[in-house]
């Protein structure tokens, strides 16, 4: 009798679990407004990519996906709010390398990216592009390094915030080239680009989509890209590695995450929909034309990638004895 009771209970529990997962899957998409949070101001690469992807997601699931910009602290404010926010699948985050893999080594945060945010899928990646304004009197990376060595602490470089990919690209160059350039953090790519064009800052490790139109218009001078190879859309601009620093690589990447307490079936459904959107030929072309490489992935692949980046950039922060600023 006891054995039968135990077996009946086990079957009932398994059935309940299956029905529970089915019910959660049936609740997708959530029957409420869906928000895709971006941790940077409008006008930058993150914002543009998010809007391209959100449009296709909305079309596919039959419900609008609203992009919400929550700039500040290099994206950390948005990441913290999502980590501690809604868990019903109605809020996803277009997370970035800074808050997910760099900032935790630089400052105290109100979230742990490895524990409080659940991976969904990779998003896009791209190299940074080091550019200077025309009045800087600098035409290539060699001249940039020479000027920095001649006047330590005088040259500055902008980033999209402390702990962002553009920040660490500048710090990595400081370490590899033995120079001392000053970091100037902004709340996003748009504001940084405005100040560079206004010659209020000297240089900027920018996203190619925001920098290349200004380069092509003759308003900015490109010095080098931060990937290991030259992107197809910037074939004439050398990499930092080619310019004398072998192995130098500082890619910028964005990935989709949600609050860690979001139910697994909902996270899986979001993964399916995001991968589908990123693999869509029209979306893929738009992203590539904009200088962004689509990077759809499984949830496990993204988890392993974030862990790897977390360790790698933690070493750079430690080596440079860096602090958030």
From TrEMBL:
Record-linked PANTHER family: BLR1237 PROTEIN, TRICARBOXYLATE-BINDING PROTEIN
Pfam families membership: TctC
The protein's name: Tripartite tricarboxylate transporter substrate binding protein
CDD domains per the UniProt record, alphabetical: PBP2_Bug_TTT
Transport among keywords: no
Keyword line: Signal
Signal sequence range: 1-25
UniProt similarity note: Belongs to the UPF0065 (bug) family.
Organism whose genome encodes this protein: Comamonas kerstersii
InterPro entries in the cross-refs: BUG, Bug_dom1
Entries under SUPFAM superfamilies matching the protein: Periplasmic binding protein-like II (SSF53850)
